[in-house]
Amino acid sequence: MSSRATKNRLTVYLLIFILVMLTGTFGFMLTEGLSLADSAYFTMVTVATVGYGDISPVTLTGKGLAIALIVAGVGTFVSLFANATEIFIERHDNRIRLQKLQMVIGLFFSEAGTELMRYFAAADCQGDALEEALALNDDWQVRDYQQALKRLDRHLFKVDVQQVDLKQLRSFLGDQSQLLVRLLESPYMLEHESFTDLLIAVMHLKEELLHRDDFEKLPESDSDHLCGDIRRVYSQLVRQWLLYVQQLQNNYPFLFSLTLRTNPFDRGASVIVR
User: Fold this and answer.
1) 166-175 and 193-210 helices cross at what angle (nearest 10)?
2) pLDDT tens-digit profile of 92-148?
3) Which domains occur in the chain, in start order?
């Protein structure tokens, strides 16, 4: 069952439980003449099936109310507790899955993604605008990432194919074939559709390049086709990279520091710590 459905179910059980508690508390106050504290206490031990026996209904109406609470409240109490436990376990599992997913994404950018962006950024017809938008630093906040993402949505990601060494790019992507296949086989990719789309786009670009022998004699129409494939990879790649960097800043400062020093969109970036 989905997390949203579980939360909705928990809300329903919680509302029913509150209604049962209020009904029992005020009901016993009226029928048994108990105080507010004693009524709430007796309602709780009844619903929780504890039944200490220190307080018990003496009127017929009070006994009927107790029976109604047992029928309506016990199941609600157990279901409420079970759903709360399920949500706690689910959140714990989600954190673990997210950590493992970030490890998989980090592997991609470490081995292939960052280098790919360097290929494309060097041939970006509007590279200066992208460099300005992705001038990352330690002071970036959530708002800065949101603004950068909006600027990426407006960026054309138009690459001059003549400025791209297609033969070298083909060789690089060919060397990454096993990595791409392993990443696609990862069960965590099923939980990240947009990153899976990126991997598929990279695989497609690799296949397109591998099926061409001579890049110097390509007709203009074929160059435009390759340009479209590169643009698809490039646009998705940069967006996923920025989201990944944001996660690093929040959770792995040491990896974030290295990412800043190897930023493919910062011409002055240096891995040397100064």
Assistant:
1) 120
2) 777 777 788 888 899 999 999 999 999 999 999 999 999 999 999 999 999 999 999
3) 3-91 (1.10.287.70), 98-261 (no CATH)
**Distance separating alpha carbons of residues 57 and 175, to the nearest angstrom:** 79
pTM of the model: 0.72
Name 50's Cβ contacts closer than 8 Å, sequence gap at least 6. Answer: 44
Percentage with pLDDT > 70 across the chain: 99
Q: At what angle do helices 114-121 and 166-175 cross, to 10 degrees?
A: 170
Name every residue whose Cβ is closer than 8 Å to that of residue 221 and which is 6 or more positions away in sequence: none
Q: How far is residue 239's CA from residue 50's CA, in Å, rounded to a whole number?
A: 55
- 32 within 8 A of 88, measured Cβ to Cβ: no
Q: Report the chain's mean pLDDT, rounded to a whole number.
A: 89
Confidence of residue 217 (pLDDT cuts 50, 70, 90): confident
Segment 149-163, tens digit of pLDDT: 999 999 999 999 889
d(CA 48, CA 70): 9
* Per-residue exposure over 157-196, b if at least 16 CB sit within 10 Å of its own CB, e if not: bebebeebebeebbebbeebeeebeebeebebbeebeebb
Tell me which residue has tokens 């791209």. Answer: 164
Give CA angle at 42 (38, 44), nearest 5°. Answer: 120
Tell me how far apart the alpha carbons of residues 132 and 130 are, in angstroms, rounded to a whole number.
Answer: 5
Q: Which amino acid, residue 101?
A: L
